[in-house]
Amino acid sequence: MRKQLPGGIELRELASEEEYEAVVDLERETWGVGFEDTVPTTILMISQKMSGVLAGAFDGDGRMLGFIYGLSGFRYGKRAHWSHMLAVTREARGLGLGRELKVFQREILLPLGVETVYWTYDPLVARNANLNLNRLGALPAEYVVNMYGEDTGSVLHSGLGTDRFVVAWPILSSRVDWLMTAGSSAQPTRAAAPFPVDESLPETTWVEVPPNIGRILRSSPEDAAAWRRRTRAQFQEHLEAGYEVTGFSWREDPEPDAGEGAGAPSGPDAGEGAGAPSGADAGEGAGAPSGADAGEGAGAPSGADADEGADKASVQNRRYYYRLEKLDGTETR
Q1: Residue 17: CA count within 13 A, CB half-sphere
Q2: What are the distances in angstroms from CA 106 to CA 20, 75, 82, 102?
Q3: Measured between alpha carbons, how far is 261 from 248 in angstroms, rounded to an integer?
Q4: Cα 151 to Cα 84: distance, rounded to the nearest angstrom
């Protein structure tokens, strides 16, 4: 399958040893040469033969700008796909290729009878939350502590461990179909919040995450670790109590608190049992190089440009929240 994008970029399924090797090179460029979970060319090839997806984005000269890779199988008795890795070269970030590769992945999987696509991302990475929940229509289904271990050898995972949301993307749903086909009007960006953050709503709680966790990790690892401890405790507590993550939004905060306790959400979710970090800043990738995202698969995909078109300063002057609701019929597990 092939698909042409504006600017002469082509999306296509990979088919040659040279292209498989280009994927491995981009894995190392993105996650670092010490990354222990690099997928080798032979596994890439075999996965593809068993209904896996391995596709790339190429410029007019045939140079790979990004790739997406995943495995197909069964989960809960239904056809499913695990989207393991997504990465975009540094120079191609900001072109929207992260989302375009996900859309292309869906187009490949629909004829195969796949109903749900799963992947992981770090809940602390606000821009990935915006991409996954608001622009793609996926929702977190599970919170896993250190899903890939404390240290994978990747520069993207140093200092925070690998806590992850497992998200479920129901690619046959009407909402996802609308987000994929209705054009830019159906794609919430950071220019406007998708819904208000309202602590007065019944059966609803909110968990705050920083706008740039990578910047916090570089400037103050202790504060970054405090963000992890606090949000881990909150998500575990609320999910165990029967709440479900149903959205991600933000509100303007023209004078963000830079002192002790910054980043602690106001209202009913003030960080029970975990100290709030000092410093209100945070964001792109857990310790990732500038511009990299943290999220899909064993590492952090780059190029998921949820900030595209948004003013950088205004993004930093916002407070970001997950919405968790206790839905009808939901019981405490």
Answers
A1: 1
A2: 21, 17, 12, 6
A3: 22
A4: 18
Count CA atoms within 13 Å of residue 27 on its CB side. 23
325's CB contacts (< 8 A; 6+ apart) are 203, 204, 243, 244, 246
Residue-wise pLDDT tens digits, 277-299? 333 222 223 333 322 333 353 34
Report the predicted TM-score, pTM, of the whole model to 2 decimal places. 0.80
Contact (Cβ atoms closer than 8 angstroms) between residue 186 and residue 179:
yes
Find out whether 164 and 120 touch, Cβ atoms under 8 Å. yes
Which of 148, 136, 77, 130 lies closest to 105 in space, CA to CA?
A: 136
| Structure confidence by residue, pLDDT tens digits, 208-264 | 999 999 999 999 999 999 999 999 999 999 999 999 999 999 998 865 443 334 444
Which residues have a Cβ under 8 Å from the Cβ of 95 and sit 6 or more positions away?
A: 7, 9, 65, 88, 303, 305
Q: What CA–CA distance (Å, rounded) separates 309 from 53?
A: 30
Instruction: In whole angstroms, give the CA distance from residue 145 to residue 164.
Output: 7
Span of 44-53, 152-161, 180-189, 292-301 with lowest mean pLDDT: 292-301
The 10s digit of each residue's pLDDT in 78-127 is: 999 999 999 999 999 889 999 999 999 999 999 999 999 999 999 999 99
What letter represents residue 273's amino acid? G
For Cα atoms 168, 147, 241, give the angle at the middle one, nearest 5 degrees: 65
